[in-house]
């Protein structure tokens, strides 16, 4: 292009004098006759110059069209960036408002906890006094019994009989008072446990809000980082064995006790160590949520240790952990609920009878289809061990499906279903890239990455109507 312009400029400089003619008059020479020159350039030169100029114009037009296309692409990317930045700003303001409300609630609950502690100490002191009185009365009763034994040869007087009966009435009334006080102490203890659980939940929520705020302020590279580990088992956070024994076995039992607000609670399934779990109470019964995907804020391409112990944030996206899921379903009387939403806002669900073996079998899963409006690709996964990128337990001998397709799952071969795949905010371009997404793909249908997923567990219901599953909303 540059060489063509140079040639055209040289031609133009050469031909300009020929086109314009010579304006200087030659010196008169009488000896030689005057030579006449043509005022016009040769036709071939003019055509050559015209063709060069046409080629130059065509090249300039192509360059302008290409530049316009690049500018349009830049404007489109700037518009997408502006929309994303606005959404992040709105989300950040909402998180700040919720964090302030949680802080206020934490202060109120802490004050209530202190009042309950003071009341419990007063009751304990009264109980100690009553126990001392009981021991003194017991001593008097013992002395009277000695007197009775000494008088076995004779008859007791009416005064002695009345005294003994009076002492018995006093002892009975004292025992009733002690029983009432002990019941009050139990109620106060239950109240203390409930308040501590509430405070623990608020602390978890505050921690999750802080992490979410940091996530928004950081760059999108966080999606490739290691996911935060969920709260560990909570044996050390309880002050007595009584508190541990009083914990519900799962969210269903918690709902039956009267707690009907969705949130994070302490549970103790089947006599295991207690841990925190998210309870979904929005459908007329309680379910324990074991997985949730909704915005791609957590990287689910994690190793075996992370999938075994759990990762993510209860407020956003998380995986509860294979050890905890096993404790929820160890008896084989559990229902697994899977709720999905695609990018067209279509929502569906499916339910299975569910049993999960322990770590000795790499958490082998067993599923029996119960109900739902989704096709069933998981029938090919029943009886499979769990696989991650660093522990390959699938049946594909020549490849590691968890490594190639991202995320950990009960994989048979590389296909059909994987709800722990990579989160795509828009449709991936390549077929191989789409297969790495969140999939629920029976048969030979095309890969399609999902927008929202939620997997929950609850016991097999006693009444058929209680197992109905609504798909109106996600928690």
UniProtKB/TrEMBL annotation:
Keyword Glycoprotein carried by entry: yes
Signal peptide coordinates: 1-20
Domain Fibrinogen C-terminal: 242-461
Principal subcellular localization: secreted
UniProt GO BP: blood coagulation, common pathway; fibrinolysis; platelet aggregation; positive regulation of heterotypic cell-cell adhesion
Pfam families: Fibrinogen_C (PF00147)
GO cellular component: fibrinogen complex
Localization: Secreted
Coiled coil residues, start to end: 95-191
SMART domains assigned: FBG (SM00186)
Keywords: Coiled coil, Disulfide bond, Glycoprotein, Secreted, Signal
Family matches, as Gene3D superfamilies: 1.10.287.1490, Gamma Fibrinogen, chain A, domain 1, Gamma-fibrinogen Carboxyl Terminal Fragment, domain 2
Gene Ontology molecular function: extracellular matrix structural constituent; protein-macromolecule adaptor activity
Cross-referenced PROSITE patterns: FIBRINOGEN_C_1 (PS00514), FIBRINOGEN_C_2 (PS51406)
Protein name in the entry: Angiopoietin-related protein 3-like
